[in-house]
Amino acid sequence: MLYNDTQAVVSTQWLDTHIEDANLKLLDASWYLPNMQRNAYAEYSASHIPGALFFDIDKICDETSDLPHMAPSIKTFSVCLGAMGISDSHQVVVYDGAGLFSAARVWWLFKLMGLDSVSVLDGGLPKWRAEGRKTDNGIILPERCHIIKCNQRPMMKDATQVAEASKSNDHEIIDARAPGRFSGIDPEPRKGLRSGHIPGSKNLFFKTLLHDDHTMKSSDELCATFLAAGVDISKPVITSCGSGITAAILNLALAQTGKRDHFLYDGSWAEWGMSHSLPVETG
Fold first, then answer.
1. Where would I find the H helices in the chain?
2. HSE-CB for 169 with a 13 A CA cutoff
3. Is 241 a known active-site residue?
């Protein structure tokens, strides 16, 4: 898996300098859990970084799946990008309203589809606003463009592959959920899910990868954080979370350290916790 992650994360200053660039496309990919009681599109409509389009994670997905926001087909993703006026000549910057939360999921989707000209805004909208930078409430109607040719990379794992990795111990499986959910002490926010984690997986709460201002830690700090969580970084890594959103923050962090062999379990706990044929550990 060879791709360029040299600008996987860009600063607010970089964006402010390049925001008028003709080849820049800015995406607001805000998404929130139901218990967060926030409406992503309503917040986008009220205030967003100038020029940003809204990327709806719950619509640009595999709508045939019973699982939440599973990765879309190549065709669906390509058509959606074309409708937003995004071509292969554009540099895409993705941000969200929580700081660094759901934007990493969209970064991962672009990478999954073989598209490398994509970055995440470090600190997202909260940092942008805290620095007094401009926001807007204008809704843009993009001009459609030609459909990008996507080539899906092997960056995703399914339940069968994760179960095999759990038994063989030939991958590190990292869970980005909060410790209480990982251990099974705290209930899951989605109804009908068992509590606990995938056997053999390690817990690395995604917030430990971030500074207080929601910016990502340095490469050295990230490596130390993975090590402290007991992760053997030399092994291939599979990331997981509740529904494949915050797992992508782990993938983004791994990319920042220069690691290439990392994958995302797209079904995550929404699938594993629902299936009684799959084993669960607690504690």
1. 12-18, 40-46, 74-83, 103-112, 124-130, 159-168, 179-183, 219-228, 247-256, 268-272
2. 3
3. yes
Whole-model pTM: value is: 0.96
Catalytic residue among 61, 150, 223, 241: 241
Instruction: Report the number of secondary-structure helices (H) and strands (E) in the chain.
Output: 10, 10
**What letter represents residue 119's amino acid?**
S
The pLDDT, as a whole number, for residue 225 is 98
What is the spatial distance between Cα 185 and Cα 282, in angstroms, rounded to a whole number? 8
Phi, psi of 178, deg, nearest 5: -65, 150
Question: Which of 87, 58, 75 minimizes the C-alpha distance to 146?
Answer: 87
Query: Taking the chain (283 residues) in consecutive chunks of 10 residues, what is each chunk's mean pLDDT?
Result: 61 96 96 92 98 97 97 96 94 97 98 96 98 95 88 97 97 98 94 96 98 97 98 97 98 95 98 96 96
Angle (CA) 61-64-65 rounded to 5° is 80
Q: Whole-angstrom Cα distance, residue 130 to residue 137?
A: 17
